[in-house]
Specification:
This protein is of the alpha/beta class and about 190 residues long. About 30% of the residues lie in helices and about 20% in strands. The strands form two sheets. The protein has a four-stranded mixed β-sheet, with no helix packed on it. The chain has a four-stranded parallel β-sheet with strand order 5-4-3-6. β3, α3 and β4 form a beta-alpha-beta unit.
């Protein structure tokens, strides 16, 4: 899931040059969203990320397992588990979606919304430890660890919700099947791009 805005020209003139004013590529500015949160968009994102159809779970699980077997046979990971640097997910017996985010995205979420409710929260970070977080979240340090974790969890769908580095790696490894892309009207100063 991704929301991007148009990029406002900078006084330097070259920083945002590859992006035209009509290009929706802006993800962040100074560790936060460049635009004011839109309640309609937030409700939409929440509804997409929390929707589960239990009747389709077995079919999705079969497709996922087939893909992960192919990925492992091509050297994209193995079936063994490394150390488990995690906290348990929320509502362990209830089928939920997984949301994966980088450390900066996690830190940008207001405290009252952490962890994102009715979702299994996964934070990708090389610096955070479970001692750093009091919330029930899985902490992993690589996409390979994410693939191993997903093999262990019972979940409906997995959503990548940022940041730019996480998007780039998942796209480059062909791990993204669908993009929910919201275009935010208006141009804003940005220092992080999609």
């Amino acid at each position: 899931i991704c929301a991007c805005c148009k990029v406002a020209p900078t006084s330097e003139g070259t920083k945002n040059e590859p992006f035209s004013p009509r290009t929706f590529r802006g993800l962040g500015n100074k560790g936060t969203l460049p635009w004011k949160c839109n309640s309609v968009d937030m409700k939409y994102i929440r509804s997409v990320m929390t929707y589960v159809d239990e009747s389709k779970y077995e079919k999705l699980k079969w497709k996922r397992e087939r893909y992960l077997r192919m990925e492992a046979s091509q050297g994209g990971g193995d079936n063994t588990s490394g150390g488990d640097n995690t906290h348990g997910g929320d509502n362990a017996n209830k089928l939920q979606n997984v949301v994966v985010m980088g450390r900066s995205t996690w830190e940008s979420i207001p405290k009252q919304y952490k962890p994102l409710p009715n979702r299994i929260n996964v934070v990708l970070s090389k610096t955070l430890t479970k001692e750093d977080l009091k919330e029930k979240v899985f902490i992993i340090d690589s996409i390979d660890d994410l693939l191993l974790l997903l093999k262990k969890l019972k979940y409906y769908k997995c959503f990548i919700i940022g940041g730019a580095q996480v998007y780039r790696e998942c796209l480059s490894r062909n791990l993204i099947k669908q993009i929910y892309f919201t275009r935010i009207n208006g141009a804003y100063p940005c220092d992080v791009f999609f």
